[in-house]
Amino acid sequence: MSDNGRLIPCRFPDFDEMEGDKPKYYITLPALWTGKHADIEAAAIKATKAEQLEGKHATFAVSIALLDDYCLPGMTAKKWDFNELPLTIISWVNTAVYGDYMKAQVVEKKFLQPLEIG
After folding, report:
1. CA geometry: angle at 75 spanning 72 and 81, to 5°?
2. Domain containing 87: what range?
3. pTM across the whole model
């Protein structure tokens, strides 16, 4: 698990187990979204098109690429069988990652006000 990221434990029944003081299943969002993540997103979107992924599966693949770390039921670094993952887990990851990622791209109106001179 990343020490710098924001760990979000999976709280769904059957997937909310703990291993000591740490959750067994989790995602870790970056501490700060940076320009690097825009590059990762672009490359991941390109890869999903090459793999002909669409919809939730494509969003999920991009979401996973944007994470600092994760441990999800039935998934390892070498095994990505989306068809075996519960849809609630896919939706949770998509919502958590993209919701947070999109917030970082919103600029509040107060930061867009022109400077009044004279």
Report:
1. 130
2. 6-104
3. 0.85
